[in-house]
Amino acid sequence: MSEWDEATIMNRRNFLKSAGALSWIAVGPELAFAAGSAPYDRLLVLVELKGGNDGLNTVVPYADREYYALRPRLAVPRDQVLKLDDRAGLHPSLQALMPLWGARELAIVQGVGYPQPNLSHFRSIEIWDTASDSAQYLDQGWLARVFSRNPVASDFAADGLVVGSQEMGPLSGGTTRALALADPQRFLRQADLVTDTGRSRNPALEHILKVERDIQQAASRLTVDIELKTTFPPGPFGNALKTAAQVIGGRGRVAAVKVSLNGFDTHSSQIATQSRLLQELAGGLTAFKAALVEVGKWDTTLILSYAEFGRRPKENQSGGTDHGTANAHFVLGGKVKGGLHGPPPALNRLDGNGNMAFAVDFRALYATVLERWWGLPSADILGGRYATLDVVKV
Amino acid sequence: MRDLIRVITLSWAIATAMPALGVPSPMGEDEARLLLTRTGFAATADDVRVFSRLTREQAVERLLAGARTTAVTPAPGWSSEFTSFRRLRQLPEEEKKAFLQRELVKSLELRAWWLEEMLRTPSPLTERMTLFWHNHFVSSQQKVRSPVLMYRQNTLLRRYALGRFGELLHAVSKAPAMIVFLDNASNRRGQPNENFAREVMELFTLGEGRYSETDIKEAARAFTGWSIEPDTGQFKFRPFQHDYGVKTVLGRSGNFDGDDVLDILLARPESAEFITAKLWREFVSPQPDPVEVKRVAARFRASGFDIKVALRGLLTCPALYAPENRGVLVKSPVELTVGTLQLFRVETGELTPFALLTAALGQNLFAPPNVKGWPGGEAWINSTTLLARKQFLERLFRAQEMRTEPQAMMAALRGGAGPGIRNPGKLGPEMRDRFIKALTDIHFDEQTWMAAFGGDPRAVERAVLLIEPVNPIDPGMQGMDLIRALTQDPVYQLK
């Protein structure tokens, strides 16, 4: 698989330029897609599980005795897991996701991480946001890099949208037209405060004028007056997804959306907190799917979860778990090829901190988005080649 | 008429010839305004008048001589009551909840206390430098979870704010907030935690890439045993957790402890240059001039890291006053907020609403986003924060609305402030009442403020904006309309 992908990346540029492209079309229809249509007709939605969701209690290795040995108090009992296969099962609070799993629209990637994992929330999320190596500091978010190399059409309302938070994360830096949106009605009302035009050679002033242009462009194209039949669960996460669905269903187009669900840093009393959060996650995502189906965008949306890290396999003394490394993540959408990817957790081979080794580099998820979803080259954005995952239907 | 022209020409000739003759000339109002805004929060009319008569050198000496080591604002009442971490863990669930709620209120009061100090201090430069060090030696309440420890660290940063960098580095490295924030409490012989060792090299002294991974590993061993006493919240060295073996850091070997490693880092010329360049970006322009930075850094180092020496070098540097460097820096949310209150002499009650405001604008005091601190500069401005800045100014200068619509103001002050307090209503009815009171206490006396300018809109414009507005001001504009036009102009966000 990976060799094939590498060959694809290496040759894509030539392919796109070359008139002799026919020889390549035989390789796969995915390439034809890449050349044929605008990449950002397809939308990416990132769902950040802030604080570091405990992947082991999300996708439970219920057949692994080691798991129950490491977590005498926290383990999800075998008879409560929602079985995915004979080894892995979902946390019972994720019940709402089971129809998606049944419809094979949910892919689960296990063992996602990176070499020399950093256990600081801040630093590790920065690594994820910028798609950097562990000891490398990059200024621009990975999506900002994507959009500066492969610009989004100028008639889009914005390149990317961050709903319900000000942390631009993967959209930060560069020339990205990124919009932080809390309350879209308020945004559209407040946008009247911005009326300036013109450019400046003073970079700081030009930045402000650019943000003003982005606001004006977004305000002139975004519409959020759509009445969704779908009801969303209460709370900030449900509200953010509802806002996102209204924007996606409206007339203004964007290439990427980021939403966050906070509170996964469960150093203590994890059982109650995580159950509540996972229920919020599953309920929110199910409603989001329903809304996207309603507005006819489910087949052109790919949803990807991410977090700074997973949590330590061995439970701590406070009924919680400490910062860990490798984690399980979700990929959802109408064009997703459902199923389990990545090896099951290897709980018998933990590192010096008692954490798991990663099996799938997180940048492989990004490479998958770039190549298989958007049909864009990934190596130059990600600073290297990462084997993509087979999670997107052709 | 001809006489008048001759007088003007003559005085112009004298003014331009004076520097050439070596006679130092007064800096004038424009430069005074720039210097005061860059080194403080705002340039008030009184200060501009005083400073305009000084030469650049005299003005800078006056700022440096006024530096303080303590706050004028009385400490928050709870600031000496440290709650033992150990005891907290043993509290029953209900009491713990009530305790945490009180801690939330304290952390809000702490932010308001600092804003109060910024607003009232006779030495705004001291607070700007305290804030600079807060954003350099970052610790966050989000992880430290003790307003008392954050308060203590703040007083430490102020004590050394314009003192000696080496002393500051040693002291802040042992500050309990730092020990907690960068995990040094879990850095033990045989199980080193590299968090502090990495950041002290990368972010506090040398700068990225000027050390190896081995240097970090070795230095981490030297910092083992630096811990805190859980009952008092004071620094504690635990000899049994310290690694007494030989370490090799940046080419030097020995049985180093943490202080030794800090001295090794200080001795490197990179450290003085790293700090000087960062100070340049804070006060002068986004792009440090490498030649000037080297020159100032050499003096800074030779002085034994006297921070005043570095500041004197930078603040008398011609680049600071160069026309092309005017308005090239973005006001931070705290500068915008405190500066606006100061410049317009806005009357306020307790400042908790403004603590939430700066958070909503992207600068939650005592809670920088990560160990690198607020990135600052252009990153302060995005679609949400720019609209929130404009809305704050819009509402402030519709004073009527501020007084009569505390609910709306509260809603405006909320918003995605990141982690922390999103909804003051959640802090209970007492806090809510305090909030509403604080909001109704905000008052701007437009007529008194405007009177000082004798009805000259150009004078008002010069007092409010450091560079030409994007939208030319209608010469007939007066009163609140004029103030709104000036503060809504994009260049009001710049300094």
Fold and architecture overview:
The complex is a heterodimer of chains A (394) and B (495). Chain A is an alpha/beta fold and 394 residues long. Chain A has 13 helices and twelve strands. Helix content of chain A is 35%, strand content 14%. In chain A, a hairpin with a 4-residue loop joins strand 3 (82-83) and strand 4. In chain A, helix 10 packs parallel to helix 11. Chain B has helices at residues 2-21, 28-39, 45-52, 56-65, 85-90, 93-120, 124-134, 141-144, 147-159, 165-173, 176-181, 195-205, 213-222, 258-267, 269-283, 290-302, 307-315, 318-321, 333-343, 352-360, 383-396, 399-404, 406-413, 429-440, 446-451, 457-464, 479-488, and strands at 226-229, 234-237, 247-249, 252-254. The model of chain B is unreliable at 415-421 (pLDDT under 50). In chain B, a hairpin with a 2-residue loop joins strand 3 (247-249) and strand 4 (252-254). With 495 residues, chain B is mainly α. Chain B has a two-stranded antiparallel ribbon with strand order 1-2. Chain B starts with a helix and ends in a 7-residue tail after the last helix. Chain B is built from 27 helices and four strands.
Radius of gyration of chain A: 21 Å
Distance from N terminus to C terminus of chain A (CA atoms, Å) equals 15 Å
Q: Structural class from helices and strands of chain B?
A: mainly alpha
Query: What is the radius of gyration of chain B?
Result: 25 Å
Number of helices of chain B: 27
Mean pLDDT of chain A: 88
**Strand count of chain A:** 12
The amount of beta strand of chain B, in percent, is: under 5%
Taken from the alpha-carbon principal axes, the silhouette of chain A is globular
